[in-house]
Amino acid sequence: MVPLIFLFLTLFNYEVYGRERWTEAQASTWFQSQTYIMGSQYITSDAGNQLEMFQNDTFNPTLIDYELGLAESLGMTTMRIFLHDLAYSQDPTGFKSRLETLLQICSKHGIKPLLTIFDSCWNAFPKAGKQPEPRTGVMLSAWVQSPGVIALLDQTQWPRLQTYVKDVVGTYANDARVLGWDLWNEPDNSYNATQVTALEQLLPQVFDWARSVDPTQPLTSGVFHGVTGAVPMIQINNSDVVSFHNYDPASNFEGMVKTMQQFNRPIICTEYMARTRGSSFITHLPIGKQYNIGMINWGFVNGKTQNNYPWDSWQNPYTTYQPYLWFHEVFRNDGTPYMVEEAQVIKRLNGCPKGLKSTAASLKGLTCYNAYTTPLNSTDAAAACAKTYANLGIIGSAAQNADVMNYVSANFSSCDKFYIGLYQDAYGGYDWPMSGWTYDNSAYVNWKTGYPTNDTTAKCVVLNKDGTWTNQACSTPQCYICSY
Ligand SMILES: *[C@@H]1O[C@H](CO)[C@@H](O)[C@H](O)[C@H]1NC(C)=O
Ligand SMILES: *[C@@H]1O[C@H](CO)[C@@H](O)[C@H](O)[C@H]1NC(C)=O
Ligand SMILES: *[C@@H]1O[C@H](CO)[C@@H](O)[C@H](O)[C@H]1NC(C)=O
Ligand SMILES: *[C@@H]1O[C@H](CO)[C@@H](O)[C@H](O)[C@H]1NC(C)=O
Ligand SMILES: *[C@@H]1O[C@H](CO)[C@@H](O)[C@H](O)[C@H]1NC(C)=O
Ligand SMILES: CC(=O)N[C@H]1CO[C@H](CO)[C@@H](O)[C@@H]1O
């Protein structure tokens, strides 16, 4: 017979070691030390599910590097990346070496990933090895649960899951490249009653396993159908920082943020953005910023997960026509943004990456400027701006002109003038480029005395270091300023 003391230790040893849930103060200190948390759920666009992303044969660091470069170009600071227990269990050493490669690439692009350990969504029977091709017109058709329901309902497999959690979280427990651990995505989504009962036993243990290796990063699991009920209470009770999913319009989203505030912990929205449901970057990111919560949308580069299709594509595959608006995704498969205006809003809310954020009056009250020192003629300069989802610089007020002048004087001493967007039109008047969200009808100009010259061969405008504007030939290579 097992002595009672050993039985006690065996049953409860996961509570004996490791750290407690963070206090509110610890969680707040952590949150305040992070760069604003904004990004997307990420899977390589050539992978249909987590196994395809992480198994040796299909792991694609070249593509990860390119796609995380796109995230960096928007100023994103995190990516929510789903791991898988079977990718680990079949080859722990190889899996961890691929995870290490991923973290190195993330770090190079200024991205701290939120790593997701388990997931209850979509296909219930994951199998290691070659993964099925996606079904035409169906979102996430190859996506797999982790663990599958067989492992969930078979407690003899739980030690394997424990090894996965402890080894992966433990290996990176002190690694500042990792933002945090999202231990279980939508835990009771698509489970029947038997499965939910097993989950209610397993989920608290998953938190205990992760805490047992003393992670310096926060643990969380996002609630997605309100905060009441057994499973949401397990999630919230165990989370160092709380997180939630919401795919509803702005007022409902804001209501959910207020609901989450009752827990007095930092908040991260780990899923939102479904355009046809009224959940979009343009409507929701400013709310996230206002309440100072992390914002992570579902979908990034369109590819084998086909996140451009809505949930109902499982019932009605989009085989004969395409949706009029993409459901999720930030980028098309060719690396261009689905909507330029969205890319601009994301960059603005991320503080105008590598440039000046002018909050001076005019132009919707918020404009980003980047100056470039490689001289280009005005056509090429405008094209270079467009690649960063920007126009040749638009300046809408004296205060903004002063901001821009100070920015270029202090940082770009090698150039004495910069192309801006103003140009002479066919009638001899001057206009701003009209594409994009930043257009307005500002009448502000700051011509140098004697300018503009009445010269039809000098149709382009430069900002001089003293803040004045002069017109000149468009073919002259010049430094330039982009804005968005
Ligand atoms: C993993 O993939 C690489 C490159 O595709 C290959 O060279 C290597 O042999 C594979 N390793 C295993 C253990 O299959
Ligand atoms: C739930 O699904 C499992 C298979 O994963 C099955 O064995 C069980 O009977 C189902 N339970 C209920 C209550 O439907
Ligand atoms: C969650 O925490 C509350 C408050 O401490 C407690 O009353 C409740 O029983 C806990 N629920 C679960 C499921 O852990
Ligand atoms: C500019 O030149 C055009 C053609 O030479 C002339 O018609 C026009 O009056 C001039 N405008 C000014 C403001 O000098
Ligand atoms: C700018 O240079 C490109 C070639 O780099 C040329 O095609 C274009 O016509 C030039 N534009 C102007 C206004 O000179
Ligand atoms: C983008 C950039 O380089 N900004 C710098 C411009 O110069 C000011 C003043 O020296 C710095 O504070 C900015 O960081």
From TrEMBL:
Signal peptide extent: 1-18
RNA-binding recorded as keyword: no
CDD domains found in the cross-reference section: CLECT
SMART domains: CLECT (SM00034)
Biological processes annotated in GO: carbohydrate metabolic process
Keywords: Lectin, Secreted, Signal
Gene3D superfamilies for the chain: Glycosidases, Mannose-Binding Protein A, subunit A
Locations listed in the record: Secreted
GO molecular function: carbohydrate binding; growth factor activity; hydrolase activity, hydrolyzing O-glycosyl compounds
Main subcellular location of this protein, as a coarse class: secreted
Domain C-type lectin: 364-483
Name the UniProt record assigns to this protein: C-type lectin domain-containing protein
Originating organism: Acrobeloides nanus
Lineage of the species this protein comes from: Eukaryota, Metazoa, Ecdysozoa, Nematoda, Chromadorea
